[in-house]
Design a protein that fits this description.
cell membrane; globular; ArtM/GltK/GlnP/TcyL/YhdX-like; alpha+beta; MetI-like fold; transmembrane helix; 11 helices; MetI-like_sf; two-stranded antiparallel ribbon; four-stranded antiparallel beta sheet
Length: about 400
């Protein structure tokens, strides 16, 4: 192959195929990613076809028709109506809701406790600082499964029997069989009241953001908490009286050998949530401490020069800047907590792995389908959590000019 001189530039021009695409990083990246995608698809197809062939050789059919079959067993704790006549699809939904319940409650409580412990780690008080450090070092260096066993077999089983139950405020009762809470009873009009309350909360949040923006522009501090409560409570109370929403509480009462009425939180759920919260909060505390220490101390000195109190410096200056460092590793802890909820099977809590991958597999024999459906649930939870946290991270990220 010979080179031909370009008449315009006077440089030698290559004949045949243009090689510029080969040296283009973007084009090469597209090619590599396409090849990787094709490889992954072919691997999944090979695994699926291989599994189908092996199952066919054993005389077993594949598919998801078994989800419409009757399960034939009970589940101890369910947010949905469930009995022996329910289907495997109902088992799947119950496991998803129970896992989601543990994940949501655990994330909220672990975040609150982790922030408190993380701030306490930097307290000028020697006792508070050392107690927070001891909590972090002890909890994060013990296996989570061991902690779940502790909370379930030792702490909760040490509670008194039904006759000697602890009577808590607001009519709640605690004993070995669980935590009995008052249950709200109403009709469809309560959904209207709940919708008004949610809209009022969103309006209060939007109003607060607008007021903070005005305060930043004018440099004036105005009360925010009381007006927000007014925005939320006034329309809710008005709708409550206009719609005449019936609201009553079913309080637990001792009847015979057990309590009736109210809502029962089983000890397995309590032990699982407490164990996950205590364990994950230790890691979140270290993330919070590192994020706060990463903020330039000059920011604290500038806030002090403006006359801000300690609480205002932390809330208005330090924490907003520390969030840019805290959120990415905090996302990983949220994902870990959600996936660690599968350890509830060790203490017999009916979450997804226990009721679907445990009992349902033994009953139906559809291991491949059930494992695939379970993996899809955890993958979906993780992706949704990551998308939300990445969106929030972009909102608090420092915008450079």
């Amino acid at each position: 192959m010979t080179d031909v001189t370009d008449k315009r530039s006077g440089k030698p021009a290559r004949s045949g195929i243009d090689a510029s695409l080969f040296y283009n990083p973007t084009a090469r990246g597209i090619v590599y990613q396409g090849a990787l995608l094709i490889g992954v698809v072919m691997l999944i197809w090979w695994l699926q076809s291989n599994a189908a062939t092996n199952l066919a050789a054993l005389g077993r059919s594949t598919g998801f028709n078994f989800l419409n079959q009757t399960a034939g067993f009970n589940i101890g704790f369910s947010l949905l109506p469930f009995d022996r006549t329910s289907t495997y699809l109902d088992v799947y939904l119950v496991g998803i809701l129970n896992t989601l319940l543990v994940a949501v409650i655990g994330i909220i409580l672990a975040t609150m406790l982790g922030f408190v412990i993380g701030i306490a780690r930097l307290s000028p008080n020697f006792l508070i600082r050392k107690l927070a450090a001891a909590y972090v070092e002890i909890m994060r260096n013990m296996p989570l499964l061991l902690q779940l066993f502790f909370w379930y077999f030792l702490a909760l089983n040490a509670l008194p029997g039904v006759r000697q139950s602890y009577e808590l405020p607001l009519g709640a009762v605690l004993n070995q069989r669980g935590l009995y809470l008052p249950l709200l009873q109403s009709d469809d009009r309560f959904l209207i009241l709940l919708g008004v309350f949610v809209v009022a909360v969103i309006g209060a949040i939007l109003w607060r953001r607008r007021q903070i923006r005005k305060m930043e522009e004018k440099g004036e501090r105005r009360p925010v908490l009381l007006p927000m409560l007014g925005i939320i409570l006034i329309p809710t109370i008005i709708v409550y009286f206009i719609a005449q929403v019936p609201v009553a509480f079913s309080v637990p009462e001792l009847t015979g050998f057990n309590y009736t009425g109210g809502f029962v939180v089983p000890p397995e759920l309590t032990a699982l949530v407490v164990g996950l919260v205590v364990y994950t909060a230790a890691f979140i505390a270290e993330i919070v401490r590192a994020g706060i220490q990463a903020v330039n101390y000059g920011q604290v000195e500038a806030a002090s020069a403006l006359g801000l109190k300690d609480s205002d410096r932390l809330r208005l200056v330090v924490i907003p800047q520390a969030l840019r460092i805290i959120i990415p590793p905090l996302t990983s802890q949220y994902l870990n907590l959600t996936k660690n909820s599968s350890l509830g099977a060790a203490i017999a809590f009916p979450e997804l792995v226990n009721v679907f991958m445990g009992t349902a597999i033994n009953q139906s024999g559809r291991a491949v389908e059930i494992v695939g459906l379970t993996m899809a649930v955890y993958l979906t939870f993780s992706l949704i959590t990551s998308l939300f946290m990445n969106w929030y991270n972009s909102r608090v990220a420092l915008v450079e000019r």
